[in-house]
Specification:
single chain; mainly alpha; about 80% helix; about 120 residues
Length: about 120
Amino acid sequence: MDESMTNQTETEKLQSLTRLTRIVYLCHVLSFIFAGLPLLIAVAINFMRLDDVQGTWLQSHFDWQVRTVWMALAGFALSGLTFHTGGGIFILFITVGLMIYRIALGWNALKAGQPIRE
């Protein structure tokens, strides 16, 4: 296979992985509507396709997305455990706000074709 075919194949693969990364961000957004199930789908996609993004700028997005899911699940669990004390509502608001921030930051970086800068 000549170099131009290899470059075209790599470009197509990167475009496909970029679309997949968008879908994962969309799953994060949909988790606000459909409870936590889209978050679990998102993290499953990240883990199943992690090898495909190794060494690319998309790897930073996958890492960011996985950390967002774990942070959200921990925040929701802590909120649920402390809801009866009144503190849970504040933890819930902080968790949702942090999720919105992380999704927006990641989406904007992806749209610009840039890795996440932490």
